[in-house]
Amino acid sequence: MAKKPKAKSSGKRKETATASGFDAKELTKGELRKLNALRKSVGEKLGEETFSKWLKKQSTGNDSVAEDKNAAMIADALLKLVDEKSLRIPRGGYLVTRGRGRVIVTKAKDE
Question: Second label for 14, Cα 20 to 30 Å away, from 4, 80, 82, 85?
């Protein structure tokens, strides 16, 4: 009988939860690259510790995008007019620009 060939490994190591407190399966591709680079440069244990500190610092940052104050002001002004039924905004979108002391609203072009 002929021997069955062994399945070739893909070279990817299966990651599991580490002692540093993060689950490598849930990391993004970029985060995995950073983790592997740290492991190669400073060693397994120190790389994981450094990465976990970096990951905690990243997660404490503001996850949402900061609200544009000008866009919020425009939306509030338009919403009042819509509620009063003196303004109707159809689908398709509009472009709001400024010019010489006035606001110019043009219909968005379909491209």
Answer: 4
